[in-house]
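Notebook, bench 3.
Goal today: get a predicted structure for Tyrosine phenol-lyase from Williamwhitmania taraxaci so we can plan the truncation constructs. The sequence was checked against the plasmid map this morning, with no discrepancies at the termini. Length recorded as 458 residues. Pasting the sequence as submitted so the record is complete.
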Amino acid sequence: MELPFSESYKIKMVEPIRRSTRQEREQWIKDAKYNLFNLKSDQVFIDLLTDSGTGAMSDRQWAAIMMGDESYAGASSFFNMKNAIKNILGFDYFLPTHQGRAAENVLFSVLVKEGDYIPGNSHFDTTKGHIEFRKAHAVDCTIDEAANTELYHPFKGNVDPAKLEKFMAEHSSKVPFIIVTVTNNTAGGQPVSMECIRQVRAIANKYNKPVVFDSARFAENAYFIKMREKGYESKTIKEIVREMFSNADAMTMSSKKDAIVNMGGFIAMRSEKLHQECSVFNIMFEGFITYGGMSGRDMNALAVGLDEGTEFSVLETRIKQVEYLGEKLKEYGVPFQFPSGGHAIFVDANRVLPNIPKEEFRAQTLGIELYLEAGIRGVEIGAILADRDPETRENRYPKLELLRLAIPRRVYTNNHMDVVAAALKNVFDRRDQIKKGFCVTWEAPIMRHFTIHLERAK
């Protein structure tokens, strides 16, 4: 008989987690102002808030940490990271930063000015925040298929080349660069095809504009290209990665995802001039150019993580666990963005809670109900995250209202996924009893979802 699939690792250390009572959770979430970010970690049983910095590092990474060089300037750890970026991604120049949003802050300080337009595919929250903070505009050119959670499309994260071409024809003089997010987190962790990447590159060439990749989950994207795109079946992940990035002029990276480190990021670029310009802001915001907010030990772990994270066996194990949860939810009839993405399951709150007014934040309501049900923490990818329009200050209501369940790498077993699926089924089965959502009592002027205060709608 055919052998069943198994993980490509074995477990060396465990951390106990505690089940709480519903009565405890009701008080805790109330004290947290109904913001799941405000919960303490020991108040959470299964934590799917994010896969950023929450993965379990390998033995090779822990060994590399012990060899970290903490010299302020010119540390060997910097050059280990530089070599990994050059060999795996193909960029000659890079700057370390403490995480991905710091990389965006440095790069956009050079490239983005007031009145600019940045077209791309569903800019994530920090990307949009850094654009709008500079009084520029993020323009979403994602394919329409991404908004239909029931539709199968192998690359729902794609930029629509017709939308992009039309926008560039009208506004190219105000466009400093085109951004491609791989994978497309906001659309449900959905991949971008190599064909689409080449199309974006061609349009950028036509208008003489650089292409920047938001690359937090680039390895997962390469996995989907290998599995779903004709002509890439026999290529290695590293070969696909090099081809992907050959179409980019620069990239930002939150290394806390596909490089499987607890902290770290970087900007990489082909232009020495851009590197010099960014260096000024990197020194101001992050640190000297050979450490940029990172310790030597973390740079060492990151270099190893880039290598390991672009191996097929690591990605297959990781993505099959996401698929496993998706299959369970499909069996229970719980609607989610289909097919399942690379790092998370995105439950379709519009279809679970259509009776909740959109003004009462369906995805946030679903996230709170899941926490109350079983102590499972996810995160809203909907109207709260979409924030207010910076000019009208009206709430923006995206087409998709999603509850993201981001699965940390090598942390939970499929038994935990069974608990998540069963808890969601219980919430789904009593969905008609959920009559009220939430309203805002306090919010920050930008990127409000991290710190927002809510109360139950009357």
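The longest strand covers residues 93-97. The chain has two domains: 22-51+312-456, 59-308.
Flagging this for group meeting.
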